[in-house]
Amino acid sequence: MERTKRMTAFLGEAAQFIPKERIHTDELRRLAWGTDAGFYRMIPQIVIHSANEQEISKLLIIANRLELPVTFRAAGTSLSGQAISDSILIVAGKHWERYAISPDHMQITLQPGIVGERVNELLRPFGRKFAPDPASVKSAMVGGIVMNNASGMNCGTHANSDKVLLSARIILADGTPLNTGNAESRRVFASQKPEFIRRIEELRDEIRGDKTLSERIRYKYSIKNVTGLNLLPFVAYDDPFDIIAHSMVGSEGTLAFLSEVTMRTVCDEPCKASAMLYFSNIREACRAVVCMKKLVNERGEWIVKGAELLDAKSLSSVNDPTGEGLTAVLTETMGTTPEELNGYIAVITEALQP
């Protein structure tokens, strides 16, 4: 069956359970939803605004049978084209905004359509926050943040989505649901797809059996890295369901649809200070970053929470008036009290003395 006929067949079946106001096939809205924050452009043939897991499962079953590609979209703030398609685009935004905060405020369960900044607003009264902090956090939604492993300057590798993720509810390409945080869901999945679980375990054991490869993977993810599929779970976790859940991070929707995620929250220190530090050249700036990374408090936590380097061209692009040929490091530190914050500033200042 040629692609146009398969698209027509998909549309006919989808229209049986998706209201017509949530299905777009007109040129204008296909053009609009085919645009994200990047400079790539593809026009989807069908745009569907999904409302729940049951709809997603049915849509994937149909698309899988008709061999039609599906792309998921949340806010569309990515700069790299993850949210565009020339086939079927399924939007998970408006109807995917439910959440639940644990009694101790240490965990939060989120659907993919909640904006990152909204999560911080929900947690702020409890002195907690959403760990990933991409520059687009005021617009980006949880689904895109987690599935693209969007992080930001402050969460680095110690508090990105992979490190704070506890469990995930997902729907595979064949429509099969799985909640990795639910024992019954895990049991049912294992009984229905034993070969799937066995293959995950085989990959885990194969990777761990190659010491050189295992060490290379550990090193690859010891520095900030969001390139390609996430291989770290195969050396970091034993349980195949933990491997599945953490493999979702950075998969950009290619492995499954993320319908819900439970993550650890982190402390939102009330006292913060930032400074733009200027150096004569990039070598000196890099030496300063290495020096600041060694600074820890009595709890073994990094004192410098973020350090972002701006070379001479970056500074000249914004007409920085400080001087010619300089390199800057935008630095941030945080504390629970003004006294603690001032102490950290003093420690950083002392460490950077020539």
UniProtKB/TrEMBL annotation:
Keywords: FAD, Flavoprotein
Pfam family, one: FAD_binding_4
SUPFAM superfamilies assigned to the protein according to its UniProt record, in alphabetical order: FAD-binding/transporter-associated domain-like, FAD-linked oxidases, C-terminal domain
Record-annotated FAD-binding PCMH-type domain positions: 40-268
GO molecular function: D-lactate dehydrogenase (cytochrome) activity; D-lactate dehydrogenase (NAD+) activity; FAD binding
GO process terms (BP): lactate catabolic process
Stated family: Belongs to the FAD-binding oxidoreductase/transferase type 4 family.
PANTHER family: D-LACTATE DEHYDROGENASE (PTHR11748), D-LACTATE DEHYDROGENASE, MITOCHONDRIAL-RELATED (PTHR11748:SF111)
The protein, known as: FAD-binding PCMH-type domain-containing protein
Native source organism of the sequence: termite gut metagenome
